[in-house]
């Protein structure tokens, strides 16, 4: 049957037959169903058949203004599928048992999106009539997949939600406070006439928030909990393995070098089989008695050992060369003229030593001599009363000085102390104990921005005990630490000498 015939039928039957003796009525004007499911569309014809084998012809068409598809045809009780459109082959059946009751019911299975449209049911028997109805096949956007993409540069990430459905849907984004966010949404069609809708927003990695995308057609959504959901790129794992590997190799080399030195007896330093360093002066007597592995440390001995180890480390040739280099660049006299308190009054160098349990900031622009001061403090502690500047500083109250070069920090505070000072045999607990005793923690060139380090420092400062902390930084590099310390504990280093 073609389009022209339908028009002819329309003209023929519409005015004359409907409402007279033979009528056809659609059960519903609109049928809505889901992709892949089944639908049954029904037409009732009246009057019913006068006897069971009375002549009956049932026809179902799908049509638009430009196209007609034969869906089903039964002529005088015989199915006629020769002209059936291939799109419907094997998917339609007439519920023939209902015909005697006056129903033409068509079942379409495994619905496709393009089954949507207008259907016409035509019944011819002891009269003829037809009705049309609309079928709408939808596909809900129910599986929302989300993923996170790193933006090449900067700290932002893209949060992406994607789903398939029909008809096209818009996507709304909200954050944890129900604020609506600007998203970029695109859609593309699939071979099944579905829409693949992809929506993305760009957010900052450092902000803690929840982001929800909602496919507005059906209300399906997905939520990102940031920053918890940031995937750890596999590359990073490799990097960790490499770093660990290098770490192990370094430990082996350090132990080997220290053992070598000890054998030569050129240093006042020993290392036992487990990598502990031992000051001969304090502990030889004991060590002589035991095999290396069985060395017994009492607490005093261990402290003495560590002090000797740190001093050896600081007087290490390369370290002290660097110190001298900085030192020579400034006259020490000059430095002491540049130092002032938070009120702009000059103070002497001894003021650089914070009181026990206190934190002090030394602020100065690059090139003002902060690192030089740090190195003078280190060498002064290392050399004790024999130091050239022992008249300017008295660091004898310090049992330990932990110098951390913050320009190269990567890990947290304890990792950095461990690595930079080669204290690999100390557990974090031991280090904590040592740091919270009569120690000076000297952070040279500190700058906030490394989350691990910043957080561990913040924690340490809350439980620092008698530890003195001297932070050397450029102005404005440590705003949050500055806030916790207040202006009281700030010293400044001018680039110009303040001689009047
Ligand atoms: C994010 O969602 C979690 C769990 O639903 C909730 O505990 C948390 O408070 C939310 N965070 C924000 C910033 O809305
Ligand atoms: C949202 O995006 C549109 C176009 O991309 C832009 O014109 C508008 O200013 C944005 N609104 C906000 C709040 O960012
Ligand atoms: C309807 O969609 C199916 C696939 O879902 C396709 O094979 C068929 O050609 C489409 N028919 C029309 C008329 O677009």
UniProtKB/TrEMBL annotation:
Protein's UniProt keywords contain Disulfide bond: yes
The membrane spanning regions, by residue number, are 239-260
Signal peptide (from-to) = 1-18
Q: Does the keyword Isomerase apply?
A: no
Give the primary localization class. membrane
Extract the InterPro entries matched here.
Answer: BTN3A2-like_Ig-C (IPR053896), Ig-like_dom (IPR007110), Ig-like_dom_sf (IPR036179), Ig-like_fold (IPR013783), Ig_sub (IPR003599), NACHT_NTPase (IPR007111), P-loop_NTPase (IPR027417), T-cell_Activation_Regulation (IPR051713)
Q: Where is the protein situated, by its record's location annotation?
A: Cell membrane
UniProt-listed Gene3D superfamilies: Immunoglobulins (2.60.40.10), P-loop containing nucleotide triphosphate hydrolases (3.40.50.300)
Q: How does it sit in the membrane?
A: Single-pass type I membrane protein
Q: Quote a single Gene Ontology cellular component term.
A: external side of plasma membrane
Q: Which GO terms describe its biological process?
A: cell surface receptor signaling pathway; cellular response to lipopolysaccharide; immune response; negative regulation of T cell proliferation; positive regulation of T cell proliferation; T cell costimulation
Pfam family name, one: C2-set_3
Which keywords fit this entry according to its UniProt record?
Answer: Cell membrane, Disulfide bond, Glycoprotein, Immunoglobulin domain, Membrane, Receptor, Signal, Transmembrane, Transmembrane helix
Sequence ranges assigned to domain Ig-like in this UniProt record: 15-136, 140-223
Q: What is this protein called?
A: CD276 antigen
Taxonomic source organism: Cottoperca gobio
**Classification of source organism:** Eukaryota, Metazoa, Chordata, Craniata, Vertebrata
From the UniProt record, report the name of the gene that encodes this protein.
LOC115016353
């Amino acid at each position: 049957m073609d389009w022209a015939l339908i028009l002819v039928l329309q003209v023929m039957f519409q005015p004359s037959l409907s409402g007279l003796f033979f009528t056809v009525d659609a059960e519903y004007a609109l049928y809505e169903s889901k992709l892949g499911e089944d639908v049954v569309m029904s037409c009732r014809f009246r009057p019913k058949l006068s006897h069971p084998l009375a002549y009956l012809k049932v026809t179902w068409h799908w049509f638009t203004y430009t196209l007609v598809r034969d869906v089903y045809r039964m002529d005088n009780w015989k199915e006629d599928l020769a002209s059936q459109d291939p799109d419907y082959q094997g998917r339609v059946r007439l519920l023939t048992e209902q015909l005697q009751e006056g129903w033409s019911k068509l079942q379409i299975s495994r619905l496709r999106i393009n089954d949507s449209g207008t259907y016409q049911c035509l019944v011819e028997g002891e009269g003829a009539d037809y009705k049309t109805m609309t079928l709408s096949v939808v596909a809900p956007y129910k599986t929302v997949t989300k993923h996170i993409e790193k933006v090449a540069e900067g700290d932002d990430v893209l949060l992406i939600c994607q789903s398939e459905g029909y008809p096209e849907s818009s996507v709304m984004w909200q954050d944890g406070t129900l604020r609506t966010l600007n998203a970029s949404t695109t859609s593309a069609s699939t071979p099944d006439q579905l829409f693949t809708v992809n929506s993305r927003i760009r957010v900052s990695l450092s902000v803690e928030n929840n982001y929800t995308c909602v496919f507005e057609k059906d209300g399906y959504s997905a939520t990102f909990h940031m920053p918890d959901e940031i995937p750890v790129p596999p590359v990073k794992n490799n990097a960790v393995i490499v770093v660990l590997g290098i770490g192990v190799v370094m430990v082996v080399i350090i132990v080997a070098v220290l053992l070598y030195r000890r054998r030569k007896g050129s240093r006042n330093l020993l290392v036992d089989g487990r990598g502990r360093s031992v000051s001969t002066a304090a502990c030889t007597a004991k060590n002589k008695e035991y095999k290396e592995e069985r060395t017994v440390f009492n607490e005093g001995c261990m402290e003495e050992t560590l002090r000797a180890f740190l001093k050896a480390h600081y007087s290490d040739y390369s370290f002290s060369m660097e110190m001298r280099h900085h030192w020579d660049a400034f006259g020490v006299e000059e430095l002491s003229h540049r130092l002032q308190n938070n009120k702009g009054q000059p103070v002497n160098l001894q003021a650089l030593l914070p009181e026990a349990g206190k934190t002090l900031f030394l602020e100065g622009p690059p090139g003002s001599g902060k690192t030089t001061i740090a190195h003078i403090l280190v060498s002064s502690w290392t050399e004790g009363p024999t130091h050239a500047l022992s008249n300017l500083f008295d660091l004898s109250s310090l049992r330990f000085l932990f110098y951390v070069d913050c320009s190269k920090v990567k890990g947290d505070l304890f990792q950095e102390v461990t690595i930079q000072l080669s204290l690999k045999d100390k557990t974090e607990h031991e280090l904590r104990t040592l740091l919270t005793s009569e120690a000076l923690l000297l952070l040279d060139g500190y700058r906030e921005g490394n989350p691990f380090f910043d957080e561990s420092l913040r924690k340490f400062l809350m439980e620092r005990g008698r530890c003195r902390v001297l932070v050397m930084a450029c102005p404005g590099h440590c705003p949050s630490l500055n806030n916790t310390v207040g202006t009281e504990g700030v010293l400044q280093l001018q680039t110009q000498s303040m001689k009047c």
